[in-house]
């Protein structure tokens, strides 16, 4: 007889919600091992923003472009926050 046990549904993709300061939400589905660079570029292009003008955060920590959802421990429906970058100070 064939083994009828089903493997757990372990997807190689994850849905990530990107939430802007104004509450606007854009959802992306990317591979867990893909660099977040692709998501960041797609988001800024979709909204007509310069990539240098925004900062992406996960749980309050700045996200680097080369990081992956796996690196950040992101699970299904995890969230990234987008803030306008601020320069200067002092």
From TrEMBL:
Does this entry carry the keyword ATP-binding?
no
The alphabetized UniProt keywords are: Nucleus, Ubl conjugation pathway
UniProt-listed Pfam families: Rad60-SLD
Q: Which residues form the Ubiquitin-like domain?
A: 12-89
Q: Where in the cell is it found?
A: Nucleus
What SUPFAM superfamilies has UniProt attached to this entry? Ubiquitin-like (SSF54236)
Is Membrane set as a keyword in this record? no
Where on the tree of life does the source sit, at the highest rank?
A: Eukaryota
State the Gene3D superfamilies in the record: Phosphatidylinositol 3-kinase Catalytic Subunit, Chain A, domain 1
Q: Which PANTHER family match?
A: SMALL UBIQUITIN-RELATED MODIFIER
Name the UniProt record assigns to this protein: Small ubiquitin-related modifier
Q: What is the native source organism of this protein?
A: Coccomyxa subellipsoidea
